[in-house]
Fold:
Amino acid sequence: MKIKKPNLDELKSINKDLSKIPVFGISFFDKPGQNDQQLKPIIRQIDETCPCENVLKENDLILKVNKKKIKTAIRERATKEDIAKSDWTSCCKGPILKKELEENLWVCPECNRHHKVKPHQRFELLFGKGNYETFKTPIPKDDPLNWTDSKPYKERLKSARKKTGLDCSMVVASGSINNIKITAIASDFDFMGASIGAAEGEAFLYAAQHAIENKQPLLVVTQGGGMKMQESLISLSQMTRTTLAINEVKAAGLPYIVLLSDPTAGGITASYAMLGSIILAEPGALVAFAGARVIQGTVKQELPEGFQRSEYVQKTGFVDLIVNRKDTASTIGTLLSILLKKNSAISSEENETSEDTQQLSKVAS
Ligand SMILES: [Zn+2]
Structure:
C-alpha cells in the first residue's frame, strides 16, 4: 500500500511543529543534530496528526515501516543546498511555496515576517525591475592572513562565490526613486553570512565615492553577522574606513540613509548601520551588537520580550521608522524629497512630495 502525498491545504492545516517533518523529501529543521529525545514528540505528533494517519493505521506493519522511514528521513536531513534548490521554504504555518512568498515581496502573508532577499531582489524592490545598474567593485587579494579554521578561508570564499555568483557579499548599484538618483548598497547573506572583510570595505568606499562624485544620496541596506574573523584586524579596520567614508558623504551635503534588514549584527551595527542621517528598519529584523545569550549571561537577568528586534530597538531610540517592505521605496522617496528641499547638493530631475509627508518630515528633521 502506498502512502498518499499530502496536498498543500492539508499541509497548511498541520500543526506548527509538524513543519519540521520532511515534506516531499525535504526537511525543515533549522539546525542539524536533533537527538532521539527531541524526535520523540515529533514522531508522536506524526502519529496523531499526519494526513497519512488513516493509511498508516490500516496496517501495523506499514505503520512501523513508515515510522522508521520518517525517523530516517529526519535524521538524514536535507542539506542547505537541497533546501536552497527546493520550491519550498518554511515560515509560521509550516511549509510555504517560495513562489507564493515571492509574489508577496518575500514577506509572509500570515505573520508579516520579512524573509531575506538577495541584492538584485532588493534593488528591484527599490528601483523596479531592470531600472538600475550595478558596479564592479575592487576586490583586494584573497586571504591576506593565510587563515584556516575548520577549513581554509580560500575554500570558503570559493564556495561562497560559486553559490552566489558574486565576488564579495556587498553589491553596489545606482537607480532612481521619485526621480532622485541614488547610490545603494545591499548584501547577500548567502555569501558567508554577509560578514565584512576588506572586499566589502572596498565596495562600501566605492559606493561612497560614487555617491559623492555624482551628488547622489547613499542608501545602505544592512545585513550581516559582523566582521570576518578570517581577516582579523583587517576586517575590524573596515569599521573605521566605512565611518570615514560616511563622514565624507555627509561633508558633501548628501544624505546617508540606512535600512536595517534581518539580521544586522556585530561590527556592522557598531559602525555604518548606526550612522545614518535617517535609520529605517524592516519589521522584526534582528538588530544587535552582541548576541542575546552572551548579554543574558553577562547581566544575569531575563531579557525583555522582543529584545534586539527592530520594534524594541526603535523604542530605545536607535531606529527612526519601521517600514514594511512594500512601502520602502515610497518612504525613502518621500524622505529624500523632504531632505532635497533642505539641501541643494542632491541631484534631482524633479522634486516630488506626497501627501503623507508630515510624519516623514518629523523623521527627516
Ligand atoms: Zn509566517
About this structure: The chain has two domains: 8-103, 119-364.
